[in-house]
Amino acid sequence: MTSHRLTPYLFVLPALAVYGLFVAFPILDSFRMSFLHWESPLLPPEFCGLDNFQQLATDPVFWRALGHNLLLLVGSLLLQLPLAALLAFLLHYPTWGRTVLRTAFFAPMVMPTAAVAVLWQYVYEPGNGLLTSLLRMTIDQEFSHAWLADPKTALLWIFVTICWQYTGFHMVLVMAGLSAIPTDYFEAARLDGASEWQVCWHVALPALRPTIAVSATLSIVGSLKYFDLVYLMAGGLPESSREVLATYIYRLAFDQNQGRYGYGSAVAVLLFLAALAIVTPLQARRLRCGGAERTAAVGSGGRAA
Amino acid sequence: MKKFTCRRLVPFCLRHAVLAGFLLVTAYPLVWMALTAFRTEGDAQARPLGLPRQWVMTNLAEVVRSGDFGSAYANSLMLCTAAVAGAVTLAALAAFAFAQLRFRGSHALFLLFLVGMMIPVHVTLIPLNRLLGVEGLGIKGGLTALAGPYIGFALPISILILRGAFAALPPDLLDASRVDGCSAWGVFRHVALPLSRPALATVVIFNFLTMWNEFAFALTLLGPGRETLPLALTQFKGEHDIQITLTSAALVLVVIPLIIVYVFAQKHIIRGLTAGAVKE
User: Fold this and answer.
1) CA distance to A117, A120, A166, A214, per residue, from B29 (Å)
2) What average pLDDT does chain A have?
3) Does residue A237 form part of some domain?
4) For residue A123, what is the domain's CATH number?
5) Radius of gyration of chain B measured on its C-alpha atoms
6) Is A153 on the interface with B (CB under 8 A)?
7) How many domains does chain A have?
8) At what angle do helices B229-239 and B244-264 cross, to 10 degrees?
9) Phi, psi of A289 (to 5 degrees)
10) ipTM of the predicted structure?
11) A250 is a domain residue
């Protein structure tokens, strides 16, 4: 291409400027702020070294929040992903209304998470919500349960909502993986007398390993990005039971004008480091395996949890 | 298709039963919400399931009359259109350089962009509030405050997808246009962009939906009266919490147009939202 030596930089510069100002700079700035004792927007910040991090080490709310992130992650890996894979396998056979089903299962992904949260708050409404009403109709006329107000189980019901929104997404990924497997594989196995179960378990599943790795990586990265649903649905719980890391940052800094920018930034720094620590090895492995194009995008947008 | 025998019939029925069950779980909350929007409040309290005893339009009318959602739609539409246009333009330029131009530091710069995909946006909530607030750029509270972060966080995935598309262009074609004396800009503008329409469409859809549905930045950066749609909905819910019919009507107004667009463009939307995770 007939171009000046500087031309490539001119192409990259606008993107780099916006990215630097609104993504890179804020991240570095949160490192700086995490070393500040800054408990209110009205007070001047003071340098305090690692005090914020020391305080975090003994902050039960922080550890519970981290635990909630991990629980949601384990749930999506052990329950959501297998469910998504099951649906994808079922749909892989000739099925009535296959396209309609696929479209319907994916539909919640298109909704704003805020709308999903509002909808499911009514599903879980203790008085005349959908779930309560269904149970009253079928099991016990007097049934009543404050689904989202019980600290012990609220997270479970939020997890159900997460599955409702994201299972279809992972199902579509697995479906794409399945359709990429040459049908000869299946035919050969069937000719050798394998049962359908064996075909799925011993032929399709091993061939799906890259797809499942992508799905799992998405779940792992996404598990650090939970915010909307938890913030909106767990608001009524006591402080120690309602937070994930992202909502804790928000509440420390902005809720009821707390303005604990320094302490909140310390949580943010740990969230950033956790994301980096989780993703770097996964990414490096993918790059080594030459699957970069396929999986480099796994952190995308924060929608895929 | 193979003939049905009894041995095949049982798995066939079982399979469809499981799928139908999941369809029910997926669709019923949405259907219930839509029905509730047309109930009277008394009906919703007494008989929350089944068809409305009396279909009323008053809920929808009241939500429309309250006016907030009209301006929220306008806000979201303006913001997302501008931010998507900005993000796709910047991303296309950078992606073209990464795919087709050789320059020092290109690998490091590309990796720098990739890191952005892994980061939970919430890491930047506090610094961005300072940056955009009165001590910084002074635009916090207005819609423009969201454009920067939206574009910034849209760039990594957009650059990644577009770089893939630009790198897959036929080399002969690019060489030919170079021989004809096209500058790098000329190749980008007249060869690469027109040939990459599908990838551009994917990027537009992905970013538009992500921005349309974004909540955390909107929650922290917007001032009163400047709500985007998701924020307006949650605030409406906060104000009318006990009026389930009214809130359902608001939900219908937010979700149904989206579902209608989705049904018509589902192929493109599914491809757009799974872009990067599924190889084309």
Assistant:
1) 12, 8, 15, 29
2) 88
3) yes
4) 1.10.3720.10
5) 24
6) no
7) 1
8) 160
9) -80, 0
10) 0.91
11) yes
Chain A residue closest in CA terms to B188: A11
Confirm if A172 and A102 have CB atoms less than 8 A apart.
Answer: yes
Please provide the CATH number assigned to the domain covering B67-239.
1.10.3720.10
Helix (H) or strand (E) holding B271: helix B266-273
Q: Which amino acid, residue B159? A: I
Residue A284 lies in a domain: yes
Contact state of B131 with A25 under an 8 Å Cβ cutoff: yes
φ/ψ of A246, rounded to 5, equals -65, -40
Task: For residue A122, give the nearest of B119, B151, B244 by CB distance.
Answer: B244
Instruction: For residue range A152-163, list pLDDT tens digits in order.
Output: 899 999 999 999
Higher pLDDT, A290 or A46: A46
Instruction: Report residue B55 as tokens.
Output: 């279909």
Using the Cβ of A300 and the Cβ atoms of chain B, whether some distance falls under 8 Å is answered with: yes
Nearest CA among A136, A298, A231 for reference residue B118: A298
**Full residue range of the structural domain in which residue A168 is found:** 25-302
For the cut 50, the answer to whether the pLDDT of residue A264 exceeds it is: yes
Res A292: pLDDT:
42
Question: CA-to-CA distance for A72 and A86, rounded, in angstroms?
Answer: 20
Listed residue (A221, A207, A202) closest to A282, CA to CA: A221
Cβ contact (<8 Å) for B255 and A115? yes
Residue type, B64: V
Amino acid at B54: Q
Instruction: For residue range A64-110, list pLDDT tens digits in order.
Output: 999 999 999 999 999 999 999 999 999 998 888 899 999 999 999 99
Q: Concatenate the DSSP letters of all residues of chain A into one string.
A: -B--TTHHHHHHHHHHHHHIIIIIHHHHHHHHHHTEE---TTSPPEE-TTHHHHHHHT-HHHHHHHHHHHHHHHHIIIIIHHHHHHHHHHHHS--TTHHHHHHHHHGGGGS-HHHHHHHHHHHT-TTT-HHHHHHHHHT-TT----GGG-TTTHHHHHHHHHHHHHHHHHHHHHHHHHHTS-HHHHHHHHHTT--HHHIIIIIIHHHTHHHHHHHHHHHHHHHT---HHHHHHSTTS-HHHH--HHHHHHHHHHGGG---HHHHHHHHHHHHHHHHHHHHHHHHHHHHTT-HHHHGGGGGGGT--
d(CA B47, CA B42) in angstroms, rounded, equals 8
Residue A216 tokens read as 């799992």
Q: How confident is the model at residue B180 (pLDDT cuts 50, 70, 90)?
A: confident
Q: Residues spanned by CATH 1.10.3720.10 within chain B?
A: 67-239
Q: A102 contacts in B (CB within 8 Å)?
A: 270
Question: Please, which residues bridge with residue A37 across strands?
Answer: A46
Whether A112 sits inside 8 A of B213 (CB atoms) is yes
How far is residue B186's CA from residue B177's CA, in Å, rounded to a whole number? Answer: 9
d(CA B132, CA A54): 30
Residue A192: inside a domain: yes
- Token pair 């997404």: residue: A169
Q: What share of chain B is helix, strand, coil (3-state, %, to 5)?
A: 75, 0, 25
Six token digits for residue B48:
């929350």
Q: How many CB atoms lie within 10 A of CB B80?
A: 23
